[in-house]
Design a protein that fits this description.
Number of domains: 2
Mean pLDDT: 91
Bound molecules: guanosine-5'-triphosphate, magnesium ion
Distance between the termini: 50 Å
Length: 308
Amino acid sequence: MSKNSETPVKKAAIVGIVGRTNAGKSTLVNALVGEKVSIVSPVEQTTRNSVRGIVADPRGQLVLVDTPGLHKAVGPLGRLLNGMARASSAGTDILCVVFDASHAPQMEDEGWMARVARERPERCVFVLNQCDRKPVFETMYRDSWAAAMRDSGVTPDWFRISALTGDGLPALLDRLFDLAEPGPALFDDDIVTDYPRKLAIADVVREKLLARLFQEVPHEIGVAVKDIAERKGEWDVAVTVYVNKPSQKGMVIGAGGRNLKYARKAAEPELSEMFGVKVRLELWVKVEQNWMKNDRLLTEMGYKGALV
Ligand SMILES: Nc1nc2c(ncn2[C@@H]2O[C@H](COP(=O)(O)OP(=O)(O)OP(=O)(O)O)[C@@H](O)[C@H]2O)c(=O)[nH]1
Ligand SMILES: [Mg+2]
């Protein structure tokens, strides 16, 4: 046997992580990467960009593409995000559809099943997430798929996991590497994401604000990093939080500025750790009516066009 044939062939694949909003896609990506690359919250439409997380191990490299979750579209941003969600299955080698198994299947879950049956991706896995919560509606998901698949001929593997506790993740990862084809790594093995730093900082600030805001306001805030002033080992970052209406400005700021203060105090240490420099944030709230229709701002936030 030649020396070459004994060397294990490295594999590579782009894995599209799709599913309904709040299924736990970003939590899963972070758990598989082993580091936080994508923000998480109980609020719908948390993820607003395609965020790539990179898993490198001796078997090769998986590029996990976290995407905005499909939801009942409200307003121009909602429609934009749903468009991104639908487009996200294109250009991937493996499609990984994530369901929240602690709730019965909803319209958006069945929408993904119908899409899989129609588009027949060559490689596809179905992930029942949140199995640490009881009851688990596995049978209902399998029945919905049986109704959707008809004669599509697609037979996805099913996995029961908890992205929160890590249960079931090694088996899922093994399967993803099985499905991956031999090929060169797409990114350096020592990076966990190629997400631009301005967008990453804005997302962490938005995550902290979402933890303090409820109901309609979260969907109407947009966060943009305006400037990063770098000194030796220190970054001063100017951040603008856009709201849609004057009444929302006070809600975002909070009594005596407490929401902004909370967001700053929670985000600064996390960002300092993430980038290995001391990060100081300056947060401003600005009313910009219909910012979600403003192409310049949407581009600045990475929701449209080329990334900043
Ligand atoms: N108990 C439990 N909670 C989970 C699990 N996975 C995610 N969650 C929670 O579910 C909520 C939504 O998680 P995300 O990862 O933000 O969901 P998402 O699918 O990325 O949502 P969008 O970005 O809005 O599409 C968060 O509060 C998570 O902590 C899980 O396996 N078990
Ligand atoms: Mg998400």
